[in-house]
Germination protease
Amino acid sequence: MKKSDFIREFNVNIDMAVEAHEILRGESEDEIPGVRMSKAEFDHAVITTIDIETEQGVQEMGRPQGTYITIDAPDIRQNNYLVHNEISEILAKELVNLMNLNDNSSVLIVGLGNWNATPDALGPQVIDKTLVTRHLFQLSPDELKGKLRNVSAIAPGVLGITGIETAEIIRGLVEHVKPDWVIAIDALAAGSLERIGTSIQICDTGISPGSGVGNRRVGINEETLGCKVVAIGLPTVVNAAIIAHSCLDGLLDELKTSPSLYKLYKGFNSDTLEHILTQALSPYTNNLMVTPKEIDTLIKSAARIIAGALGMCLHPGITREEYQTYLQ
């Protein structure tokens, strides 16, 4: 069974644009119409930029027209401050290029997710480490002039905690605070195990909270909020159905290349594979999400990296030492 067919049959959500692109391009062995991809390599990261430029590209990729940037950095797993700082700098530069802020731009940072569930706590943990300055502009505006931008932040929780759609909370804040930009940070669902905790995606199309775990909520984007939105995400879970499919796929590859077992390989068809996967995943089918044991460490590292990048991007007029002075 093709991976694209499997994803459609089992209703598996793929949050990472780069993974959707890899699946489609790998199966067609050709460029995707209306989609442009470029890559850049650094010592500790590989940046893949995917631009969905036409309506045909939107249909092929299954996501809105815009720019999707993925920073693959396996070294996030290392407990190395210098490496993490380099990744923060790379992320900050991509954010600067994507947002094109001016000195007077105001920003609302939203940490999406459930602080009570570790794999979903990325957004709230980033907010804990973020320098907010909106109140400082009212207290000492002369001191901050030319140093800091007007930044506010919130971790609004999830529908199950508040009883309120997250998009409704953010829309109310936007109407009152009137930011030029909203930066939404959320945990994502990966399409492969190796990307958990090691790939950061940023895009200018907004985000649908909970989409990765099949719990799609009202979108947070320019259309719903009335201001520009950038989304930052990091995969923290993978659907168990994807793992099961990879195992079956690997088994079939082995059977296919073995002369003595090729007849057995020919006996499999898509219906048989679908039945095996359904039985193996029952009763959860496509609702079983998997996360590594060390997810708490990965979340803390990623939160520091993203918060550091936000500081570099939004407050380039202050040094790291000054940043610590203003950080509450």
